């Protein structure tokens, strides 16, 4: 099985300038590899550094040290720690998706337009993007009455479903999921599971943070636990 991602001794620290330049370690000593078409789940208590790991992989946080070697379609093997901002923008648009519990979109952009814009970043023309957007919004059970509505008015669950649709519709090579089932009812969780399985079967690799362990165990291939600064593989998954 082909390796897609290798992380070696990743560390991210923060400097708190308002606290006399105090340094806080967000995560350290993070090492693992991920093969194409597999799903790695990360567990741990709130504040352990799980989201810091994902944000460092996506490079919304610039890692302090370590290596993140990603096998890019466009650039070949590339260390995301050292990649330029231009390279990262291209990789985010075309290869790596990120789903957060929080929706961050431009004001006065409708839900349908949010998903269409994500599709068109892949070079797909307008009308095809519109049809693909409608299909995935239906899949995630976002009511059609909301498609032409501005997402700032949505509930937490509706925003999360829109986030999932926006990222998953692109079938990225790598998908990072930060609590993908938070605020979702059981029916919506099933929609997420169906899409995860479909993406895995088509070759998408995934890394996800979970508190819903029952859901996680139905979709992951490997598991790591982050606690007390240690990142350990859970045996027997």
TrEMBL record:
One MF annotation (Gene Ontology) recorded for this entry: lyase activity
Signal sequence, renumbered to the chain: none
Pfam families referenced in this protein's UniProt entry, alphabetically: ABC_tran
Superkingdom of the source species: Bacteria
Domain (ABC transporter) ranges: 5-237
Keyword terms of this UniProt record: ATP-binding, Lyase, Nucleotide-binding
Alphabetical list of PANTHER family matching this protein: ALPHA-D-RIBOSE 1-METHYLPHOSPHONATE 5-TRIPHOSPHATE SYNTHASE SUBUNIT PHNL (PTHR42798:SF7), LIPOPROTEIN-RELEASING SYSTEM ATP-BINDING PROTEIN LOLD (PTHR42798)
Family, as annotated: Belongs to the ABC transporter superfamily.
Name of the protein in question: Phosphonate C-P lyase system protein PhnL
Native species: Bacillus salitolerans
Lineage: Bacteria, Bacillati, Bacillota, Bacilli, Bacillales
């Amino acid at each position: 099985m082909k390796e897609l991602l290798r992380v070696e001794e990743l560390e991210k620290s923060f400097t708190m300038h308002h606290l006399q330049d105090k340094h806080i370690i967000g995560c350290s000593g993070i090492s693992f590899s991920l093969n194409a078409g597999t799903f790695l789940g990360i567990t741990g208590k709130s504040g352990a550094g799980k989201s810091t790991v994902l944000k460092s992989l996506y490079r919304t946080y610039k890692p302090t040290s370590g290596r993140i070697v990603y096998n890019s379609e466009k650039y070949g093997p590339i260390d995301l720690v050292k990649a330029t901002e231009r390279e990262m923008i291209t990789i985010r648009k075309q290869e790596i998706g990120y789903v957060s519990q929080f929706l961050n979109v431009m004001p006065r952009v409708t839900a349908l337009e949010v998903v269409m814009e994500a599709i068109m970043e892949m070079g797909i023309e307008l009308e095809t993007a519109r049809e693909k957007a409608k299909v995935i919004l239906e899949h995630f059970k976002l009511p059609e009455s909301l498609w032409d509505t501005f997402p700032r008015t949505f509930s937490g669950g509706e925003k999360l479903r829109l986030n999932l649709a926006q990222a998953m519709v692109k079938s990225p090579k790598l998908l990072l999921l930060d609590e993908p089932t938070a605020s979702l009812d059981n029916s919506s969780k099933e929609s997420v599971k169906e899409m995860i399985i479909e993406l895995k079967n088509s070759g998408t690799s995934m890394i996800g943070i979970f508190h819903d362990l029952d859901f996680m165990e139905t979709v992951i291939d490997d598991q790591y636990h982050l606690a007390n600064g240690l990142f350990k593989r859970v045996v027997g998954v």
